[in-house]
Design goal:
The complex is a heterodimer. Chain A is an alpha/beta fold. Chain B is α+β, with helices and mostly antiparallel strands. The mean pLDDT of chain B is 95. In chain B, helix 14 packs across helix 16. Chain B starts with 5 loop residues before the first helix and ends with a helix. The chains are: A alpha/beta, B alpha+beta.
Chain lengths: 180, 552
């Protein structure tokens, strides 16, 4: 398993803390949802970044009030074909405006990278090393996108309209020159 | 026709490149079959009993002559010289080799065809009325909306790993020829009291082992809101649809378990949060898509030209075909022609490469280069001048696609069944073939009137047996093929599920049972114009049941 951020393989600075153990001071920690919710107030006063592992069958609306105190939200893909976290990611980014790290965990393969990026993920715990190395290639796999998401990539529809308007503008200009 | 632009072409080319890489990784062992499966499925590649099957999308069932020729080429070059048109307006090739799939896809891509999302747990090919834009009872061309929805759902980053497959159909006519109420989402364009056009949104229809007729959750939705509303439905489904049991994963189960009203409230709440966002359609966007649909330059013609009248008066076979396979067009002097892919003794929906090439040529000559695929597994030439009908008929007759049985007892819908499919419990095609032989007398068939028989080889119901006027479902009992029979189903605007008439019958008797049902109908009907379905509705299932089981 490799962590990929901004297209590069990086070290994971977050320490995973399980339900029963104490939260260490001064280091970034990643906590299970129940553990985090139980101590949300106190954890918010820590002097180091806090992250939460949010299961894919729990409403993200429950997490929304805490997002401004979190540095990392890790969403889960228990199986490649279980796509619930795609919806959670878009809600966290686009509806609740989370700006911290949004990490895909679980069975994460190169064939999802672009979908994950488009849904708002910016960090990936990649299952296979070969896939982690192919991140840049997968990111460039497509240049045309049909649907708008919060990632800001231009859709084909908008691009077509811009083209129609530009050529209409040029035709008007040309017509203007002709009349002058 | 929808004219692809460089964006559409680029995306398909990028998809072929991606799939080529995925096949390479599978062949080298980098991908396990488990990992490869959802990827190949999303490209229309199934592993069947004998080989890989490739399903090609025919968006809203519209094909150009060039695309039809490409399908013929693929049938010849990569398959065994034929293809099978499906109930989802697609085509399947049953004998493709995995290593050759990327090349077949590249050949298809050259004419704008692909297998994207024809399988897998994603939004499938968008279907519509095969008479779109030519039917007299239609308020506008539904394919513009089907295309907008097609683009919106293609490689959707959020909805490519849904709990289960997802089927959307759009139609805009009073008569429902698109089976809207057996779809996950059915969109019916209609006018409200104020004269505005919008969509009735139906959700949760579907067949399979737990059939449901879709419920209307929004009687009138403005056109600008259609994509945001679909996104709201898909988002609710993606999060809350069941993933613990494949047989309970379709949206129909979620709608049923929550109740249609509670489901509608969830969707409404989600939709309110996104309806004025990036998915709201402005008129310029709609106009951009509409402008890339090309329509023939119709001539100003009159109905019933002299050439047609003369041919009908002199050639009885032609006149019979005309009465059966030709429908009224919205333009005077034109006609809609259905090509029967249900010849006596043939597998329903199959066409050979030679037939495909010939049909492509005929479409070019007589139908503005356009062909449609209908969910009844027949083809349609949508823009034929009435004065050309006689010449066209002779050409169609010569290649075996002019059997005058459209809508009749031998116009059977059947899934591939145990002859091809690894899920099937029983054969479907041979039953269909036997039925076409038993009802080979077309004068008798015409006397029976409209009668739809649907056959599925297993409970997954790809042959839509629940909505057949007579539905036949293959099951397996102690290693033998048996068939359950239902009557009274329909997939139109009055959609209903058929009622089981009694215990399953062995394969040797199923054709006799259908003949008994038909004989009972002839005795029970009030007048010759009362179709089978109406007789079942009037007298109920009992008299039919008695007739079938009294002697068994």
């Amino acid at each position: 398993m490799r962590l990929v951020k901004a297209g590069r393989i990086v070290e994971d600075r977050f320490v995973r803390v399980l339900d029963e153990s104490a939260v260490p001071d001064g280091v970034p920690v990643l906590l299970p949802a129940a553990r985090f919710l139980a101590d949300a107030e106190e954890l918010g006063r820590r002097d180091a970044p806090t992250g939460v592992m949010w299961p894919n069958n729990r409403k993200v609306a429950e997490l929304a009030p805490h997002l401004d105190r979190l540095a990392l939200v890790a969403l889960m893909f228990p199986a490649f074909k279980d796509g619930r976290a795609f919806s959670q990611a878009r809600l966290i980014r686009e509806r609740y405006g989370f700006r911290g790290e949004l990490r895909a965990t679980g069975q994460v393969l190169r064939d999802q990278f672009l979908f994950l990026l488009r849904a708002g993920f910016d960090a990936f715990e990649v299952t296979k090393d070969a896939d982690a190395g192919a991140f840049a290639e997968a990111e460039r796999r497509y240049s045309v996108f049909y649907q708008p998401t919060g990632d800001g990539r231009a859709t084909a529809l908008r691009a077509r309209l811009a083209r129609v308007r530009t050529s209409a503008g040029q035709m008007l200009e040309a017509a203007g020159e002709f009349h002058r | 026709m929808y004219v692809h632009d460089d964006f559409d072409r680029t995306l398909i080319a990028e998809r072929v490149a991606e799939f080529r890489d995925q096949v390479r990784r599978r062949l080298s062992g980098e991908l396990t079959e488990d990992e490869f499966k959802p990827l190949r499925l999303m490209n229309g590649v199934y592993l069947q009993l004998h080989a890989y099957m490739l399903r090609i999308a025919i968006p809203y069932g519209t094909l150009s002559s060039n695309q039809m020729r490409t399908l013929a080429h693929v049938a010849r070059r990569y398959d065994r010289g034929y293809g099978h048109f499906t109930t989802r307006q697609n085509i399947q090739f049953n004998w493709i080799k995995l290593a050759e799939l990327p090349d077949a896809m590249a050949d298809l891509a050259a004419s704008g065809l692909h297998g994207m999302q024809t399988s897998g747990n994603c939004v499938r090919n968008i279907t519509t009325d095969q008479w779109a834009a030519v039917a007299p009872d239609e308020i506008e061309d539904p394919r513009i909306w089907a295309e907008l929805v097609r683009q919106y759902t293609t490689l959707h980053p959020e909805f490519s790993f849904l709990p289960r497959k997802f089927k959307i159909a759009v139609a805009a006519a009073a008569k429902d020829r698109a089976a809207l109420r057996v779809h996950d989402i059915g969109l019916r364009l209609h006018r409200n009291g104020a004269g505005e056009t919008g969509f009735e949104v139906m959700v949760g229809g579907g067949l399979g082992r737990t059939p449901f007729i879709a419920k209307t959750i929004k009687p009138f939705l403005l056109k600008r809101d259609v994509l945001s509303y679909i996104e709201a439905i898909l988002r609710v489904y993606n999060q809350y649809g069941r993933r613990d049991n494949i047989y309970k994963a379709r949206i129909k189960i979620l709608v049923h378990e929550l109740g249609a009203e509670a489901f509608a409230r969830e969707v409404e709440q989600e939709w309110q949060a996104i309806k004025d966002g990036a998915l709201a359609l402005d008129p310029a966007v709609i106009a951009e898509i509409a402008a890339r649909f090309r329509y023939p330059a119709y001539e100003r013609l009159a109905d019933n030209p002299i050439e047609l009248n003369k041919a009908r008066a002199t050639d009885r076979r032609f006149d019979t075909w005309f009465g059966n396979s030709v429908a009224r067009h919205r333009m005077p002097g034109y006609a809609i022609v259905t090509l029967s892919l249900k010849p006596e003794g043939g597998p329903p929906g199959d066409a050979t490469a030679e037939q495909m090439d010939a049909i492509a040529d005929l479409a070019e000559r007589y139908s503005a280069g356009e062909i449609r695929v209908g969910h009844e597994q027949n083809l349609v030439l949508p823009h034929v001048r009435q004065r050309d009908l006689y010449a066209l008929w002779r050409a169609l007759d010569a290649i075996g696609v002019a059997t005058p049985n459209v809508g009749l007892v031998s116009d059977i819908i059947a899934c591939p069944g145990l002859d091809y499919c690894s899920l099937a419990n029983a054969r479907a095609i041979p039953v269909a073939q036997d039925l076409t032989r038993r009802f080979r007398n077309l004068d008798v068939a015409r006397g029976l009137g409209r009668l739809h028989i649907n056959i599925s080889g297993c409970i997954n119901a790809c042959g839509h047996h629940h909505v057949g006027h007579i539905g036949i479902l293959g099951i397996e009992k102690n290693g033998e093929e048996f068939y359950q029979v239902t009557i009274g189903g329909r997939a139109d605007e009055d959609a209903a599920l058929g009622t089981l008439i009694g215990p399953a019958v062995p394969s040797g008797e199923v054709v006799d049972v259908v003949e008994d049902l038909v004989a009972a109908y002839v005795e029970l009907r009030e007048r010759p114009g009362e179709i089978f379905l109406d007789t079942v509705k009037r007298v109920g299932v009992e008299p039919f049941k008695e007739r079938v089981y009294a002697a068994r």
